Amino acid sequence: MDFVHCYFSLYLCLLVATIFVITPSSSAIQFVDAETQARIDKVCFQMEEYGFCNGVFHEGLTLPSADFRRLAQLTIERASSNASSTHSFVVQLLAQATEEPLKNVLIACENAYTLVMQSFNKAVVDFYYNDYDSMVRDERAAPKAQASCEVTMKTPPAPPVDPLVDRNREMRILIAMAIVTGHELVPGSP
């Protein structure tokens, strides 16, 4: 009897441990409904990195269902936040820079991310006024500004290691996500 009881207790402990390991601990939604995933796929299959795009949506959603308006809101807020934190990072790097070529590159990137932030700050306001045409128009200024930072980082005399490579990649994808989801809200948009 003790032998059976011991195995049953072990089995029960393993079952409980498995449930704790599998159960997500964050408030992010792990599974979305089919319609929401179809919307996410429509956006993310157009991105250079599907996994990053899909992850942004799944991390940001708090309910299993979302329309394009919610997806657009999520991308605008994430792009705005990312632009702001990248701008702060550039300012921090600039304060620590000692070499003139690096300072010049960082000044160009600081200016670029200022424009990206302004673009998304305007887009956020337009979004909340349901002025989606203006929102997309505002967002369309961001890719050129962001790309200018990337190009400057690669133009000689470029720094030996680009400290913004990952941040620029993420920003580029977030901008594209915001524009694509924004187009879904504009009547008559392809």
UniProtKB/TrEMBL annotation:
Gene3D superfamilies: Invertase/pectin methylesterase inhibitor family protein. Pfam families: PMEI (PF04043). Residues 1-28 form the signal peptide. Residues 35-181 form the Pectinesterase inhibitor domain. InterPro entries: Invertase/methylesterase_inhib (IPR035513), PCW_Enzyme_Inhibitor (IPR052421), Pectinesterase_inhib_dom (IPR006501), PMEI_plant (IPR034086). Keywords: Disulfide bond, Signal. GO terms for molecular function: pectinesterase inhibitor activity. SUPFAM superfamilies: Plant invertase/pectin methylesterase inhibitor. It comes from the Eukaryota. SMART domains: PMEI. NCBIfam families: PME_inhib. Belongs to the PMEI family. This is Pectinesterase inhibitor domain-containing protein. It comes from Turnera subulata. The lineage of its organism: Eukaryota, Viridiplantae, Streptophyta, Embryophyta, Tracheophyta.
